[in-house]
Amino acid sequence: MTLHQREAKELDTERLPMLPIREFVVFPHMMAPFVVGRRSSVLALEAAIAGDNRVFMAAQRNASAEEPTPNEIFGVGTIVNIAQSLKLPDGNIKILVEGVERATIHSISGEEGFFRATVHKARYPVEPGPRLDALVSRVTGRFARYAKLRKNLDYDEMLQAVRRDDPGMLADTIGDGLATTLEEKQELLAILDPLDRLSRVANILSMEIGKLGTLDGTLEMLRHSVATLAYRAGKALRGAPPEFAGYRSAPDSRTPAEILAHMGDLFDWALTMCDGRQEWHNSPSLPWDDGVARFFAALEAFDRRLSADTPLGVPAERIFQGPIADALTHVGQLAMLRRMGGWPMRGENYFAAKIETGRAGADQAAPVQEFG
Questions:
Q1: 191 and 63 housed in the same domain
Q2: Which residue range forms the structural domain that includes residue 157?
Q3: pLDDT in tens, 240-285
Q4: Would 1 be classed as within a structural domain?
Q5: CA 78 to CA 100: how far, in whole Å?
Q6: Are 366 and 222 in a shared domain?
Q7: Is the pTM of this model over 0.85?
Q8: pLDDT, tens digit, 9 for 90 and up, residues 81-112
Q9: Are 204 and 309 within one domain?
């Protein structure tokens, strides 16, 4: 069955004050706070509060439009109840709304200084049966996997608030909690048939699980690479004599202190990459102990960013092939300079080393198997 093939059992019409909203989709059954400041929206709210406290909310297609035209508003929105309202000293109104039901815009008028929308409310019958049971089971199972990968979603709490026998409520509650784009949420809101909507939620969950599963594994490998770098750098830096900081293998070569400053710069750079920028700064070399502390502080800040539940601004592979691979090369360079200067490190079986993901500071485990 394709979307919207079933006929609606009921098709009611209602005329309500309308609020266009920016970069947000209100789903039925959800509570959402807003601060309303646009003059036209304040007038619409005042009309709603003077009436039955109901207003129609629909997302703007272009969030930058200060006074959107009807064509700049999505055609499906949500009728909401205004649960709380507070007039602020600056004239804005702070509101808390509760989504009631989705509706499709039939027409919009603006003669009163604000929009009123005539909307159609379509209701689809949902009969218990194998298809409903299979969809509910598929969605709840996939959502459990999704919540585990996201780490910041309370799966049990969300599903306890949902009636399993109400597929529309289940689809809307989960759809609201998905980390998807405004357009994807709007697409979900626009699916009127609850069974079709629940099926779409199952497909979205499958796609998001695929993304997060790959990302989760990639990030874990990236974080283990950072921990490996911290362990190996700790060994190369630990116990170096004071004169090592200024040692030069040739008159025009960089000193270990200069290399260490560059390694700190690499992870300041990596941190900006995570946010979709690439900002590079050359830092002067510091006294040895200060330079070591600065490098590990930068490495720990980078690892914390990798552990956050925020998408990376660039592919993880590029971060590895850039700053992480560069820094590993410089650790080998420092180890070589120690040997050339007469301060060699002991060899080690790094396969046996106790390298722990998330341990990115100077405090590292003792070697398990050294030689030489």
A1: no
A2: 130-211
A3: 999 999 999 999 999 999 999 999 999 999 999 998 888 999 999 9
A4: no
A5: 7
A6: yes
A7: no
A8: 999 999 999 989 999 999 999 999 999 999 89
A9: no
